[in-house]
Amino acid sequence: MPSIGSLDRRITIERFIEAGRNAFNEPVASWTSVGSFWGRRRDLSDGERQASGTIDSFLVSRFVVRSNGVTRTVTPVFRVVYDGSIWNIQGVKETSEGRSRFIEITAVRDADGN
Question: pTM for the full model?
Answer without folding.
Answer: 0.80
